[in-house]
Amino acid sequence: MIITGVSTEPPGEGIIGAVATTVKSSVPGSDSEAVGYPATLGNYTTSESTGVSTMTRLTENYKTK
């Protein structure tokens, strides 16, 4: 079976947003940032790889700041 289309996850922090909110309210000075990438189910491997690359770049940029 081939699944096509995008995931049902809306842009933004998605289902993990509640965890991010809890951490930010519990850990002074903490922050979060949504990872924008093409979350697709039909081409999951490429989608996942793009998400990891984007997250790595965001983490490195945050570290540099």
Describe this structure in words.
- The chain is an all-alpha fold.
- The protein has one domain.
- Helices cover 48% and strands 0% of the residues.
- The chain is built from two helices and no strands.
- It is flat, with a radius of gyration of 14 Å.
- The mean pLDDT is 84.
Descriptive labels:
single chain, 2 helices, 48% helix, flat
Quick summary of this structure?
The protein has 65 residues and is mostly helical. It is built from two helices and no strands.
* Low confidence ranges: none
Helices and strands, in N-to-C order?
Answer: HH
The best one-word shape is: flat
Mean pLDDT: 84
Going by helix content, strand content and strand pairing, the class is mainly alpha
What does the largest sheet look like? none
Topology (SSEs and partners):
Layout: H1 17-26, H2 44-64
